[in-house]
Specification:
Number of domains: 1
Number of helices: 9
Helix content: 55-70%
Distance between the termini: 42 Å
Length: about 210
């Protein structure tokens, strides 16, 4: 096994060339889905690798509650610097959990703020906010059975002609139809779990906008 046991941790370094190839040679829909899936798989593999390193490297340390059977001598013999790697994996896993938790909390907080901003407005597919600043976004459904909405400010509508407004609404509805919010969240969590996957997160955002 040797140093190859660390391969899942460094394999995400290939994210940048993979992202570039997908952006240039695949349809945006295919690229978005493929890159999201690749990011998720690589993030899960690197996380499992850290967990296994922690178990193998620390199972026989004094005070560890894990049974010795979880760290077979043959497995430890195949892992270079098993105790060092096991101890280093603990803070890495804790940081991973903290960063991913922060991403999820921020996602939930933004959704709640967006819902509060629409409170009192008619329940229509397009919500117009009385704000002079120009912006628009797609707000996914908050619960099963409800529908997503396109949110646009009056400032944005005032700057667009009829054809531009139709293009804007079509763009935002495409985000809702494709459930891009889920794909983007997966890509953000993957990049939080392994920083080497940040190029894939950027590529997913770009491909989703092209889609």
């Amino acid at each position: 096994m040797g140093v190859f046991v660390f391969l899942p941790l460094v394999l995400p370094l290939t994210a940048w060339p993979v992202a570039r190839l997908a952006e240039h040679h695949l349809h945006p829909r295919t690229a978005t889905r493929l890159l999201t899936a690749v990011a998720a798989v690589l993030a899960v593999c690197s996380t499992l690798c850290l967990a296994l390193l922690m178990v193998v490297g620390t199972a026989q340390l004094p005070g560890n509650p894990l049974p010795d059977a979880w760290s077979d001598p043959e497995v430890r013999a195949a892992l270079p610097y098993d105790e060092i790697a096991g101890r280093a994996a603990i803070p890495a896993l804790l940081a991973l959990v903290a960063v991913c938790g922060r991403v999820l909390l921020r996602h939930r907080r933004v959704r709640r703020r967006a819902a509060r901003a629409l409170a009192g407005l008619p329940d229509t597919p397009v919500a117009v906010l009385p704000d002079p600043a120009p912006y628009a976004y797609a707000l996914p459904a908050a619960a099963r059975g409800s529908r997503g909405r396109v949110v646009v400010s009056r400032g944005m509508l005032a700057r667009l002609g009829p054809a531009e407004r139709r293009a804007l609404f079509a763009h935002e509805r495409a985000h809702l139809t494709g459930r891009h919010d889920r794909l983007l969240l997966v890509a953000r969590l993957a990049a939080a779990a392994n920083p080497f996957l940040r190029p894939l997160r950027t590529a997913v955002v770009y491909s989703a906008e092209r889609w």
